[in-house]
Amino acid sequence: MRHSLRSVTLTALLASSAIAYGATPPPRTDSHSLSETAKAFGQLPDIQAISLSPDGNRAAIVTPNPIDGGTVLAISSLEGTVSTKPILKVPGGSARIRYCGWISMHSLICKLQVTADTYALGQATVTTRLLAVKDDGSDQKVLSSQATPFSLGFSNIGGSIVYRGSPDHPDALVTHDYIPESTTGTHLANTSEGVGLDAIDPDRFSAKMVERPTAISDDYIADMQGNVRIRVLDPVSANSRLNSQLVFQFREAGGNQWRDFSSYDRQTEQGFYPVLVDSKQNIAYGFANLNGRRALFTKQLSEGSAPKLLFSRPDVDVDGLQTIGRRARMVGASYTTDFEHIEMFDPQLKSLLASFHKALPDLPVLSVDDASDDESILLIRASSDTDPGHYYVFDKKTGHLDEVFRIRPQLKNYALAPVKQVTIPADDGALIPAYLTMPVGSDGKNLPAIVLPHGGPSARDSWGFDWLSQFFAARGFVVLQPNYRGSSGYGDSWFQNNGFRSWDRAISDVNDTGRWLVKQGIADPAKLAIVGWSYGGYAALQSQVLDPDLFKAVVAIAPVTDFELTKDESRNYTNYGLVAVSVGSGEHIASGSPARHADSFKAPVLMFHGTSDANVDIMQSRVMLDRLRRAGKQADLVTFDGFDHQLADAKVRAEMLEKADQFLHKSLNIK
After folding, report:
1. Transmembrane residues, as ranges (predicted)?
2. Is 512 among the domain residues?
3. Mean pLDDT of 388-402
């Protein structure tokens, strides 16, 4: 892979009104066949993860391998003409590289994920591993626990990077899930158990335990200097199940004694959840509930201290912290109204972000994704609804903003459809926020239409590029993405009791948005469909239970179909209690499970599912298919052998898109 480098002087850009990306407009989308369009939109992003080297002159990128569908770690030189060299390849299928981060000028740590069928459990499981590697691909070393003939168990938790090193503290810090070994016949067995913390030498990749594990230790938080200041405990009940309460302990700078700091309930979201430490101010940044919404607080690292409000919004939750560099310096907070925003606390970065917005007026979704150690070089990501995005490098010393990567170059010849934020009245008067995508060149009247509810359900859609909705828009469909009640980001009141226990409210909202499309004259009522993935697939199916006459075709990707099955899937794991409480018990288990109401269906159904899905077991789709066919309904299931919940493979996604489009055109009688 090779990209041209376009250099633009920021000060010159500020004096101009726009940036020209090319003299000729892209051709109309109707010039492409279905197969070509499915292949283009099914392609994975060229940049799946990216990390800037300590000096800012190179980037480590995780990119798809077009040959076998796997993932590749490549090192790109950002000086002069961008050149890229692959150094690590993971074959396609159920394995992938998730992320790679620099821990020194010549060393990286990567997180790998493998999804595999576990026959003893009868379902797929996800295993992660941390791998250290030099920037030329040499000296690869697994840092996570590995099974030995003496191991008394197996860990599928590969650990996480707590600290990526710095010039004054070169060792990286990673969590390590220690598995005890049998001591029979040996004095060298490991007897430690639980999550500890290892220091990793960036040159030799040797590991040294620096925090001994306990049976309930789960994670650690270090400051910018690499000092471990907070420990996370995840207590278990008497039957070895996790409960909802997390406990956080702190220790004084240079001290050894752990003291109680805060607690947080994962079910009620009450308490203080620390995520980052600033030892110079002796504070932790974290999140707590404020008037029913998540807000950002600081809390002194001392016993009995009270959280102090730093930033909140009256309308939406604060999504997260904005940090830059491998030392994760806190510079701001993010939140999402109609689209994503960043509130910069750092005055210089706030000014620079405003300048970037002026320099890139057609790419309003901006973020600072990484920085060199001295923060003189910044990695900027910019995108919009009709542009999947670009990465830029900004050099503070020269004032140059250089485009280095397009995120989805395969779509450059497609005219993408603008996305408009709308509000839709529900049957009880509440206003449902949603995003409307019209096909390019359409008059917006009496068109084939799709309601596309998001997954989660503890998630939300936001304004910007979405590959799935853009594919259907390119095929002539209006697409509506509602943030129904049960979505996250809008506070406790909108979240209700989550999309499981409050399924009736969530699905009623989804159906109301379909009716709105018809009432507005946008959708042809005979050509109205619903498509969803994961919980969105559940919503697509359950919409038939509430109003089987509304949608004329249903596409469900990796759907939940029975709430009891959802609980059963976690029964062999320590988080079973958390899942059981989240899904709940009672009458809604039966009323809210579409697999138990196959007789209600009138619309034809097409489902897609990976056989190695560890999020939603493929059994859910198979049960749904069996129930629908027994009820004499039109239904089909397309399976992808060895693929997980994301179906993260270009060929698989292209096949899924093409078959979904053919099904919709046939079911809706679209010529």
Report:
1. none
2. yes
3. 96
**Residue among 547, 530, 544 at smallest CA distance from 454:** 530
Give the CATH number for residue 442: 3.40.50.1820
Residue type at 45 in one-letter notation: P
Give the model confidence (pLDDT) of 581-637 as tens digits: 888 889 999 999 999 999 999 999 999 999 999 899 999 999 999 999 999 999 999
Question: Do the Cβ atoms of 469 and 454 come closer than 8 Å?
Answer: no
Angle at 437 between CA 436 and CA 440, to 5 degrees: 150
Strand partners, 177: 195
What value does the CA radius of gyration of the chain take, rounded to a whole number of Å? 25
Distance CA 418, CA 364 (A): 13
Q: Report the alpha-carbon distance of residue 182 to residue 189 in Å, rounded.
A: 6
* Residue 175 maps to a domain: no
Kindly state whether residue 322 falls inside one of the protein's structural domains. Answer: no
Angle, helices 650-667 vs 34-42, to 10°: value is 140
CA 449, CA 604: separation in Å to the nearest integer? Answer: 16
Counted domains in the chain: 1
Q: To 10 degrees, the CA torsion angle through 582, 586, 587, 589?
A: 40
Q: pLDDT digit string (tens) for 248-304? A: 999 998 899 999 999 999 888 999 999 999 999 999 999 999 999 999 999 999 999
| Residue 507 dihedral angles phi and psi, to the nearest 5° | -70, -35
Residue 584 neighbours by CB distance under 10 Å: 17
- Residue for token pair 């900027």: 380
Please say whether the beta carbons of 348 and 358 come within 8 A: no
| Identity of the amino acid at 122 | G
Report the alpha-carbon angle 582-485-597, nearest 5.
70
Residue 399 token pair:
């004032």
pLDDT in tens, 323-332: 999 999 999 9
- Give per-residue burial for 107-129: e unless 16+ CB within 10 Å, then b: bbbbbbbbbbeeeeeebbbbbbb
Q: How confident is the model at residue 180 (pLDDT cuts 50, 70, 90)?
A: confident
Residue 363 lies in a domain: no
For residue 553, give Cα distances in angstroms to 218, 229, 444, 450, 622: 45, 54, 21, 9, 19
CA distance 633 to 127: 38
- How far is residue 460 from each of residues 290, 453, 532, measured CA to CA in Å? 20, 9, 13
Q: In what order do the strands lie in the sheet with 605-610?
A: 419-425, 431-437, 478-482, 447-451, 523-533, 553-557, 605-610, 635-640
Instruction: State phi, psi for 597 to the nearest 5 degrees.
Output: -135, 40
The H or E element containing residue 543 is: helix 535-546
Beta strands in 443-493 (DSSP E): 447-451, 478-482
Which residues, listed in sequence order, are joined to residue 480 by a DSSP beta bridge? 436, 451
Asked whether the CA dihedral 5, 11, 14, 17 is positive or negative, the reply is: negative
φ/ψ of residue 19, rounded to 5: -110, 135
d(CA 56, CA 78): 8
Q: Which residue, among 113, 123, 2, has the nearest Cα to 616 in the 3D structure? A: 123
Question: Token pair of 301, please?
Answer: 């690292």
> Can you tell me the distance from the alpha carbon of 208 to that of 259, in angstroms, rounded to the nearest whole number?
24
pLDDT tens profile 413-466: 999 999 999 999 999 999 999 999 999 999 999 999 999 999 988 899 999 999
DSSP 8-class letter at 462: -
Residue whose pair of structure tokens reads 């210089």 in the numeric block: 348
